[in-house]
Amino acid sequence: MPLHKVVLISKTAKLYLWKITEDLSELRSQIRLKNSSIARLESMKSESHQKGFLAVRMLLQHNEYDDFDLYYDAFGKPHIKPQGCFIKEVEISISHSNDFSAIVISQEKVGLDIEQIKDKTIRIAPRFMDVSHLENLSMEEKLKKATVIWGTKESIFKIKNEQGISFPNHIFEEDFMLEDKKSKAILKFNNREEVFNIIFDTIEDYVYVCAFEEKA
Whose CA is closest to 108, among 2, 209, 23, 13? Predict the structure, then answer.
């Protein structure tokens, strides 16, 4: 299947979604990979993860990049090489969950997470969030909101990527309404407080969440 959807997240950031309907060989035949990526792909035991990995590269190709333009720093954070000598490096964040792969390309730091809505998220909610934020909601609403909050914390962690950050102890979501499709969260870590703006929405039975650092 071609590109599924493009979402303008902000004036400086776009989200690209690929719904994975192809088989593994079809995806692989359309992508040129560097040797390190071939080795990484072959080391993956799950076909779902292999497809997600390749679908991300399909999204890169849609944006006139390829696997050779993507690299990871020492902390495992992805980056895109500048196109040409004088073009500023753009920011990228990557996520994959079952049937969807997604990337955000942005002119500012961004974290992205996509998650399938599952009952398990409610069961583990007390481990990562303030469960009072789920009060007076239907079960469907609880599932969506808990998934948004999990994605919020994952997205913020992807931006900061600092060892020792704990979802329940360091990242605090402000309460929000699902229909607003936006919220805020605060990271309190290493004697600093940082505020993040959160943009989220649902697509089929998935939630995607993008986090951006709030500028002072």
Answer: 13
Which amino acid, one-letter code, is at 146? A
Residue among 197, 168, 192 at smallest CA distance from 181: 197
Are 194 and 109 spatial neighbours (Cβ–Cβ below 8 Å)? no
76: phi then psi, degrees, rounded to nearest 5: 85, 15
Residue 45: CATH number of its domain: 3.90.470.20
Helix (H, G, I), strand (E, B) or coil at 139: helix
pLDDT in tens, 29-87: 999 999 999 999 999 999 999 999 999 999 999 999 999 999 999 888 999 987 654 45
Domain range for residue 31? Answer: 5-108
The residues with which 93 forms a beta bridge, in sequence order, are 104
DSSP state of 162: -
Cβ-contact 117, 139 below 8 angstroms: no
Instruction: Give the residue from 132, 128, 208 showing the smallest Cα distance to 170.
Output: 128
Contact call for residues 181 and 197 (beta carbons, < 8 A): no
Burial of 104 per CB tally in 10 Å (0-12, 13-18, 19+):
buried
Q: Using CB atoms within 10 A of its CB, is residue 80 exposed (0-12), middle (13-18) or buried (19+)? A: middle
At 133-148, the pLDDT tens digits run 999 999 999 999 999 9
How many domains does the structure of the chain reveal? Answer: 2
Nearest CA-CA partner of 178 in 200, 156, 205: 200
